[in-house]
Amino acid sequence: MSNIDTTCVNAIRVLAADAIQKANSGHPGLPLGSAPMAYELWANHMNHNPKDPKWENRDRFILSGGHGSTLLYSLLHFYGYGLTMEDMKQFRQDGSLTPGHPEYGHTVGVEATTGPLGAGMGMAVGMAMAEAHLAAVFNKPGYEIVDHYTFALGGDGCMMEGISSEAFSLAGTLGLSKLIILYDSNNISIEGDTDIAFREDVQARMRAFGFQTITVEDGNDLAAIGKAIEEAKADKEHPSFITVKTQIGYGCPAKQGKASAHGEPLGEENVKALKENLGWPEPDTSFHIPQEVYDHYAELAKKGATAETAWEKLFADYCAKFPEQKKLWDAFHAPVDAAALDQDEKFWAKAEKPIATRAASGNVLQYIKDLVPQLIGGSADLAPSNKTEMKGEGDFSKENYAGRNLHFGVRELAMAAIANGIALHGGLRPYVATFFVFSDYMKPMVRLAALMKIPTTYVLTHDSIGVGEDGPTHEPVEQLAMWRALPNVNVFRPADVTETEAGWYLALTSKETPTLLVLTRQGLPQLAGSSKEALKGAYIVSEAKDKDNLEGILIATGSEVALAIEAQAELAAQGRSIRVVSMPCMDLFAKQSDAYKESILPSDVRARVAVEAAMPFGWGDYVGLDGATVAMPGFGASAPGGVLFKKFGFTKEHVVETMLRVLAKVK
């Protein structure tokens, strides 16, 4: 290690320690221990250009151990990604560009929002899959315009979380050779030595998954780290896992190798001792970085600019030689044309016969796969049930990265993380699928998608007690409430083909919001009044005959809309003037103007009944104190779906009875 390399590694450590100490909050252990491997990777093995952080062919770096964010922020600061010293001094402060954990879209150079341990590993697998697919679609001999690596750095916590095992098992199966994992192995977690809960042979596990495994015994040996990275790149058949043995809190005499270094500031005296131990100039001065450090990083940054210039020339030659591929490239990297889709009569085709909304969704998918070539996706081993296979598009596999159908196996949590990675990579629009009840397994990663504002589509079928014989383990009753509680997610439960098409339109044209399509297993009738108005979240699907003397409103979603219309007809026969509102998406309706909301749910009509085969939680805003719900009282049961709907009160008679009771109460 040269003197300047040593100084630049220690600059990362010192800056990280100072930022954490000033904030009096943070995690110094990882930055102090991992600084050498991060420096070696960014300086000598990773193509990145601070002057163009979104360069398509850059290598991706994800700090899966997001608690060690000052490691990443220090690199971004030194390389000139726009983080100033003032930003470093504002670490963890309100409105700063240096929040406690890295946030995608907030800080330039951050490739993914990380913090939940293991999540970054799953997203890295998704990025590597995206690179492999785009390379298979676009590269020509001598014109490898998609040719980059995905690196992820994480520690023992990332390896303990089950999501990493799910994702790495798939990565090994797929032979994603441009995925390289750096394992910060320091044998310390918050509660102490990892031996108390984690004694497995991690390398043996990774080999079993299909990874090449490499070990660096000394985490300060830049030459050994560099050699390991080059060895990883040389393997064209397997992803690589590099174990780098480090000491948490390295360089701080009182904290090195101890659990206390993980998640608390070192203390002013210990920061000074760290600097003295590292031979840092002016150890009593905070945020002091010698100019030679900035000069050296500026020189290193020029490598990335040179690499991008060479790529731009290659890409220009490619576009000239393969103009049709250039058109396809532009299509892959452009948003879906919302105006064209809105006017596409074939997309909005009507149906006449009853059909399950999962099947209607499958029909939409077969049509849009040709309109949206960047669409890629699949299911957690449930494609035949979810209706999510794109016919004739091939399976994505180690033998065929050009395939558009992804097979995730029974790995819902990793599937959702991988979808995040694919979306974050750019150039592709992912969808993933499973049964609605199993969306519980996906929750943490969908939450990250919402936080990162990436418009992934989730196809979630078998949406209610209509699942039937499989019983309460497979019948979702609380999931709608759970997902509706999540910010920046559109939960869309369509009632028929037209509303299903509206749901897909919403998903395809969304720019910053994930969409959950919640679909039935059982067939549903086509509704005469269903329309694109579903895109407003709620609309009048069946108006009262005497709308000027409106007495009450039935509000329903999905399979229960047809039931509400049946009840409306019965109530009309009794001389009652009742409107039916279909509310496929509460999230969209909440964003409408007050005037529109009032036109759908007039405030002076207090007799309201919500009908939904799920828990009633969340319906209070719409039915008010005077209204009622026809909803699930608890878990379902094992019996044919039709039997269960009757058992739990989803009948015309019960809906009518409930509305009459509310009308009497209001009167």
Automatic annotation (TrEMBL):
Binding positions for substrate per the UniProt entry: H27, H262, R358, S385, H462, D470, H474, R521
Residue positions binding thiamine diphosphate: H67, G115, P116, L117, G157, N186, H262, F438
Biological source species: Selenomonas bovis
Family: Belongs to the transketolase family.
The protein, known as: Transketolase
Residue(s) at site: Important for catalytic activity: H27, H262
GO terms, molecular function: metal ion binding; transketolase activity
Note on cofactor: Binds 1 thiamine pyrophosphate per subunit. During the reaction, the substrate forms a covalent intermediate with the cofactor. Binds 1 Mg(2+) ion per subunit. Can also utilize other divalent metal cations, such as Ca(2+), Mn(2+) and Co(2+).
